[in-house]
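Entry 14. Structure prediction run on the chain below.
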Amino acid sequence: MAWIILGLTMLISFGSMAYLKSVFARTSKIPIASGLTGAQTAARILQWAGISDVQIVEGEGFLGDHYDPMNKRLVLSPDNYEGSSAANVGVAAHECGHALQHQKHYAPLQIRMGAVYSNSYASTGVMVVVFASLFFHILSAYIALWLISLCFGVLIFFNLITLPVEFDASARAKVVLQQLGIVRAGPEADAVSATLNAAGLTYVAALVGTILNFAYYFMLLSGNRRS
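Output returned:
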C-alpha cells in the first residue's frame, strides 16, 4: 500500500507539472499585441491598483515566480520578467493578483500567511518523527503514526486554504489584463487562461497527494489502535 500511495503521489505531482510545462511552452510562443514584458505588466497593474510599496525583482529558476507578502516583493523568473508572451504576462499578472489580495485584506490569503510557519513545521515534523521512530526507536509506532497523521492534517489544511488564494489571484489576473488592454480577447486571453488554469492544477495535485498520504498513515494508525 505504501508503494501504491507513493506511486500515485509521484504520478499526480509529476503529471501536473509536466502538463504545466507543456502548456507554458505552447503559450510562451503566443505574443501579445501590447508588447509589454512580464515586469512591465506587473508595474502597470500595481500602478493601476495604487500599490507603490511592492518591489518587482527578477528571481532565478524556471517558474519560481511568487509574491512575498512579508517583504512586499513580487519575484518573477527570468523568462517571465523579460518575456512578452501570453504566458509571461499571465504569470506576472497572477502574482500581482496576490498583491491585490494583500491590499484588500483577502481573508484566505491572511489565513495562509498565518499558517506558513505551521506548514513548515509540519513538513519538517514528518521527517523528524519518521527518523525518531524507525532509526532511533525513540517513539512507539502508535505515537509516531499519531504525530505523522497530525502533521499531514496541518499540511492538508494549508493546501486546502491555498486553493482559493491561487484561483482568486488567477481570476483577478484574467480580468485586469483585459481591463488595462494588456491582452486582447481571443487567442491572447485564451492563452493566458490556459497557462493559469494549468498552474492551478499543480495546487490541486499537491492537495490530493497530501490527502493520500494522510489517508495511508491514518489507516495504519487505526489498525495499530485496534491491535
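Helices lie at 2-27, 38-48, 78-82, 86-103, 107-134, 141-179, 187-226.
Filed with the rest of this week's runs.
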